[in-house]
Amino acid sequence: MIGAVAAAGEALVLHSAASATEAHLPYVALFDLLATHLDAADDAVPAHLAATLRAALLHEPPAAGTATSQPALRIAVVELLRALAERQPVLILLDDAQWLDPPSMEVLAFAVRRLGGSRIATLVTERVADGDEPSLGELCTSPTVEIPLGGLAETELAALLRTRLALRLHGSAMARITAASGGNPLFALELGRALVRDDVTPRPDEPLRVTRRLRDLVSDRLAGLAPALRPGLLMLAAGGPAPTETEASAALAEGVLVLGADGRYRFSHPMLSEIVYADATPHQRLAAHLRIADLTDDPVRHARHRALACSRPDAELAAALDRAADAARRRGAPGTAAELSRLAADRTPADPALAARRLLNAADSSHAAGLFADARADCERALGDADVEGRVSARLLLADLDADSERTSRLLADAAADAAGHPHLMARVHLYQADVAMRSGELSSCLADLEQAEALAGDSTELMTRILSVRGPVELFTDGARAIRTYRHGVRLTEGGPLTEAAVYLRAGLAVARLRQGGVSVAVRDLELLRGDVEAAGRFRELGDVLHVLTVAYERAGRCRQAYSTGLAGARFREDLEPNAGRALLLRGMAELNGGTAAAAASALEAAAAALEPQNMTESRAYSLGLLGRARYLQGDVGTAAALLARSRELLDGIGYVDPALFLLDADLAEALTRAGATEQAAHVLQEARARAGREDRTVVRLGLTRAEAVLQAARGEAHTAASLLRDTLGHAADHPYPLEVARAWASLGAIEAAVRRRAAARMAYGEAARRYARHGCTPWLRYVQAALDDLDGHGRPPTDLEQHIIDMVRAKATNRQIAAALHLSVKTVEAHLTRVYRMRGVRNRADLVSRLAQSQTPPR
């Protein structure tokens, strides 16, 4: 309870962050916690105890010739904390408690034993060594919840470096920082700062720059090592086998190595590996890599270590690296393939065109792995020496990576000039232009470019599958049946081959087509298989899109918990890869609407719409506005919801996306318009939606349209007829493919019945909606329906005028003291009225009330 109240800003937080350098100073933690609250001791603590407390915290000198009385100090702290807790809940936050000064720790342990179960809670963080148990449980109030925290994942550390240092790292560089830091955010930031200062990204054969501050934290274990042990440790640090048993035993004794559960030796902290590698001379590092290459039979590892041991051009080595890159791509490791192709280019002697071709292979692999900065750098290096095909490939890839429309236009014009007279290359240019037009909603231009690409493609299966992967989405909006035939043909063409970009989008597109027809279980199964294949192939560029589509599929299937986790995973993934945050925020908002809160969804989606507006990403912006409309509806702002949903529909219509099963927008828009009083506009939307559903044979949207029509009928004074219509429709909807549509219809039926004061019928309908939303894990709509049930049941009488004023000020985030001053009441009177409001609303505290008010449709008076 304290944690929830603290999160809402209601608790008094007393914070101390201990440090090793101050652990010898007595009562420094008590000073951090209580020094600014000693005035409260004047009324709550007896004078002689207050004097002891002030003396211990050096706010006044102790009586001459006396020492601090430990019993008096302990009782004084207990009394002061008890007095503070009578005013508001208290959260004592102790950071790095292993460094608390012993006198403070003894006093706090005494106080916690006597204050547990009151309105006081503690949050204690303690660092423990691997394998050790926390030892400061005496500082925790009961019941105690222990939460072990490990290192941060690579995506989380990447986000930390991006937000704190404006440093974007991907691929091998980010993997090395994650490994070297062991997931420790402080270590990762220190390594990142060194890269920012040096303005470099380390090459595979270069050590990370380990600053002296980091060395001082972990390198003391290396001090006692005999020099003879260093070569064996260098082999391990370079990626080779472990030292001999004798060497390993000595390193174990010094705490440099540990023996894992798998029977393998590893450094006791990964930072030690970077220090050992950095401390070796360049010649020693080259020798270690050459020795590792001789010891391995794996062609990829052998070629990589040979390259790291030889920095001069070597045709035979470059060819071996080329073959190893192909093997890595087949294994689903495009990031490794990119590194190997880059090494092959660097080792290629006297053949600039061949080196450029290998650089473009590196760029393609980096692009597939989501390493966009690496792909851009490789393309720019290759352009000067590439042949015609290479220049076209480089310019098209650079255009795909560039967010500046003017530069993209110049790159496309240059690519078209290079491709002139080469049908196969010109087909690729037209195909790229078609893809850009499709994403911008210019469907006629897209189809025209596709026709030209197809005419020039000849018998190229690779080009044809790419053409079909672009044609499919266009046909989804013009001829759904034909789109399915197109997708199936494309999937057949790619069967048995590598998982290319076109293969991914053909399989995803076929699942989307099935989803819109109601084939939810098949679509979810196919998308889950596709996700596994994409992850196994390391095609991270496409993974964000697959996660987006899978989130939609989980939502349509009513699997909201999985939609929530998948959407958040996709959002984090896009945050790492995409310079514009708009699509990541869109996916985060979608996730929150499934398993989070309406408020969090609205915050993310509002930011998404703003970020997407200048990017000419009409489709994504339309989705963000539509989803924001749903969030505002849940928050009770039906007027704003209607306007946002209408704008979303206008944008989608403008780019030809008129399939009513695309976004399930029409019913929500009509219902919001009706509740906002725009009944004629709602009727027009429903008429258009019915016509579109008939043309596209979209039976899956009929339940939603009937629900919206029933709400419109009720608003026109035909509530009983509307309720009967909707109830009859629900009686035949047991096997509807979209479970959340059924739950939403029950919620609307509850609202219709409540409006004509048929409380029992309304309670039954709302209860059914709540059971369904709870079953599917859709928490925002569950809270919405529960709030409607609470309002229906009343939890007592309506609020008085005074109570309503207090509710309005709570909604405006005023504190109890501010409310008391504004209404000329005592704080205790405000608290008494709030207690009655809590009981009336069926909530436990202010945080719950604020959440309930956010879900309520009733605006403040």
From TrEMBL:
PROSITE patterns attached to this UniProt entry? HTH_LUXR_2
Q: Which SMART domains match?
A: HTH_LUXR (SM00421)
Domain HTH luxR-type residues, every copy: 795-857
* GO terms assigned for molecular function: adenylate cyclase activity; ATP binding; DNA binding
Q: Does the keyword Zinc-finger apply?
A: no
UniProt keyword ATP-binding present: yes
| Keywords for this protein | ATP-binding, Nucleotide-binding
Q: Which GO terms describe its cellular component?
A: cytoplasm
Task: Name the Gene Ontology biological process terms.
Answer: regulation of DNA-templated transcription
* InterPro entries in the cross-refs: AAA_16 (IPR041664), Sig_transdc_resp-reg_C-effctor (IPR016032), TPR-like_helical_dom_sf (IPR011990), Tscrpt_reg_LuxR_C (IPR000792), WH-like_DNA-bd_sf (IPR036388)
State the protein's name: Transcriptional regulator
Natural source organism: Catellatospora bangladeshensis
